[in-house]
Specification:
By secondary structure, the protein is mainly α. It is about 80% helix and about 0% strand.
């Protein structure tokens, strides 16, 4: 199994574990978990926007001259997808169990696509995969709580709600990483770089759009503190010397390797001292 696929699936499983922790918290302390879910989302937003702007987008621009267009496309693609999901998966009033299907399906699709971003990011480089995955994993805690709340509101018992919430918000992330990773590993470097730039645009949309919504639900001091904590955590992660295998890493390695070969050849011909 390729290293990038192993890494993306591993982080997908870690995301499922964090979702499980959110479900465990809501099972034991449902009111506290519901109150804190917005703060977790804001911390994740701060981390994602920081890593996206300071690392992921610059790396995509360095690997592909037209990466900016793909980043923009990813941003507006995320916006259009969000609008489409709101239209198709509207949550109606009422307590019928059947009414929980559409919003729960929306959560499952979103979680599956998180796994896709993992696989594309790790295929690009190990550093980028870690940065993107950690930011997304941070919001899985809140996502598990949201899925549980949807089911509980529509008449599901606690055990049933925990099971279906895990399947929708937790299990779909490693599944998305595995399914997409099988295709990503066979793509060329330019294609992966383009997909990587698209994923960067999607991350920016997620960080500045859906994850920022709790700012209107909590006090400004708490909201900005949570956002700042995410930014600080991201800066600390960016300072770590993470290294690994990836298409963009290999691209840089090959570039330096070719340059070294040219210098050796010129030195051998007496062109260099």
């Amino acid at each position: 199994m390729p290293f990038s696929l192993q890494a993306s699936v591993s982080f997908g499983l870690l995301a499922a574990l964090v979702t499980s922790l959110g479900l465990a918290a809501v099972a034991f302390r449902s009111e506290w978990s519901a109150r804190q879910s917005g703060l977790f989302a804001l911390s994740a937003a701060g981390m994602l926007i920081t890593t996206s702007l300071l690392h992921i987008v610059p790396e995509a621009m360095a690997a592909l001259p037209r990466a900016g267009q793909f980043v923009l496309g990813g941003f507006f693609g995320g916006l259009l997808m969000s609008l489409a999901m709101r239209t198709l998966f509207q949550e109606h009033a009422g307590h019928s169990r059947a009414l929980a299907f559409t919003p729960l399906l929306a959560v499952a699709i979103h979680s599956f696509f998180d796994g896709v971003i993992y696989s594309v990011s790790f295929a690009a480089s190990f550093q980028s995969g870690v940065y993107a995955a950690l930011g997304l994993i941070l919001h899985e805690f809140a996502e598990g709580i949201i899925a549980f709340a949807i089911l509980s509101r529509h008449g599901f018992k606690v055990r049933e709600a925990l099971l279906w919430a895990f399947l929708a918000a937790g299990a779909t992330t490693p599944l998305g990483a595995l399914v997409s990773g099988l295709f990503v590993t066979g793509l060329g470097a330019d294609t992966i770089a383009a997909l990587y730039a698209v994923s960067a645009g999607l991350l920016i949309y997620v960080a500045t759009g859906p994850m920022m919504q709790p700012l209107g639900e909590v006090s400004p001091a708490r909201g900005l503190s949570a956002l700042g904590a995410g930014v600080a955590f991201a800066l600390a992660i960016l300072a770590l010397p993470l290294h690994g295998q990836g298409v963009l890493d290999n691209h840089d390695h090959d570039h330096h390797h070719v340059g070294a070969d040219l210098r050796e050849a010129e030195a051998g011909r007496g062109l260099l001292p």
